Amino acid sequence: MNQKISAIRDRLGKELCILAHHYQADEVVRHADILGDSLELARHIDGLEARHIVFCGVHFMAETAAILARPEQKVHIPDPGASCVMAEMVPALLAEEVLARLNRDGARIIPLTYVNSSAAVKAVCGNHGGSVCTSANAPTMLRWALAQGDGVLFLPDANLGRNTARILGLSESEIERLDIRGQGRFVPAADPTRKLYLWPGLCAVHAKFNAGQVTAIRASEPHALIFVHPECDPEVVSMADGAGSTTFLIKAVAEAKSGSTVYVGTEWSLVNRLAARHPDKTIRPLRRALCSNMAKVNETNLARMLQELDTALPVRVEEHIARPARIALERMLTACS
Ligand code: 13P
Ligand code: SF4
Fold this sequence. Notes:
Its EC number is 2.5.1.72. Keywords: 4Fe-4S, Iron, Iron-sulfur, Metal-binding, Pyridine nucleotide biosynthesis, Transferase. One of its GO terms (molecular function) is quinolinate synthetase A activity. With 337 residues, this protein is an alpha/beta fold. The protein has three domains: 2-83 and 295-316, Rossmann fold (3-Layer(aba) Sandwich); 87-202, Rossmann fold, CATH 3.40.50; 206-290, NadA-like (Rossmann fold, 3-Layer(aba) Sandwich). 40% of the residues lie in helices and 15% in strands. The strands form three sheets. Strands 6-5-7-9-8 form a five-stranded parallel sheet, with helices on both faces. It has a four-stranded parallel sheet with strand order 2-1-3-4, with helices on both faces. The structure holds 1,3-dihydroxyacetonephosphate and iron/sulfur cluster. 1,3-dihydroxyacetonephosphate binds next to loops.
């Protein structure tokens, strides 16, 4: 498998670039030219010269790359069925309807979507003065969005929204978690005392971590460090020693003293890799939580994808969606440059 991939890489040279997210398995990561978190990977697209960009991650990441790539570049994903459960919790039409309901009495609520969302949801944000954030820049982007209007509709991750609001010092009375069951029927018009409306989405992987696990570790191993991703429940985040993007977690583990025990509350493939990379420390998952969609990409379908590069259908986003989605993404890249 390895040899097939190497042969294609040798043949294509700079015509090919393989990007991989930190949650990819080692068998994929070892072939990556660029490894990063969602923000870093999105930032790299602009400078890429390669004609073929192969994105090892979930579909919204490849879609984001396709939106930011030049027209002559082709973006491929080894398994197009690698979706993100959270991204699927926000249908674009419903987001548009909920936004219209919030704004119906003349308020200006700005939509801000986590990058873990479809291109169509990013397009809704682009069309209504909003933008995109990642877990690495959520505080900067929420501050930016709050300054643009009367309040913010944050989609789709309610945990990231609330954790970020706490960093910015918003009070609980300024935050409302929307109840959007019933096709948005129950969403009220914007209330001037509220600053932030949270879409009730979550990550099924990070939802596996809870305060009871943290309490048990604190009781049995009082010197252990605990770092978590901000998609975790706010109670878990408030009890941890630090929270941040996958890149933050990698740095936090690297900076922990030799001999220390560190628990990491994020996807298993990354925690596993960190444990192997730091044999002088004890690195443990808060709980073993694998993203089954990230795991759909493997060395076998990567090799197959590379063999079929010239005939495979690339990831495509129709221009009427790509244009406003690009505007939303570029607002983020500019605000965080
Ligand atoms: P990062 O923003 O850290 O890349 O995380 C992306 C993600 O999907 C986390 O579940
Ligand atoms: Fe989506 Fe969660 Fe998997 Fe990240 S870990 S890709 S948010 S399902």
